[in-house]
Description:
- This protein is mostly helical.
- It has a single domain (3-64), classed as Helix Hairpins (Orthogonal Bundle), CATH 1.10.287.
- It contains three helices and no strands.
- It has helices at 3-7, 11-34, 41-64.
- 11% of the residues are buried.
Amino acid sequence: MKANDFRELTVSELEGKESELAERLFSLRIQKVTGQLEKPHKVSEAKRDLARVLTVLREHSTSDQ
């Protein structure tokens, strides 16, 4: 997803997306360690999406102040 797509979501939706992406990243890392991961680029995609969500959440928190 692009950052603009995340900016359209509410704060509660972003927080849900954050936990979902964190769980997905954890799962992908476990698969990578055990050798079951077929597409290694999915780890970097998940990390990137999680960083985008956290950035947009930070933007929301600074705009509220």
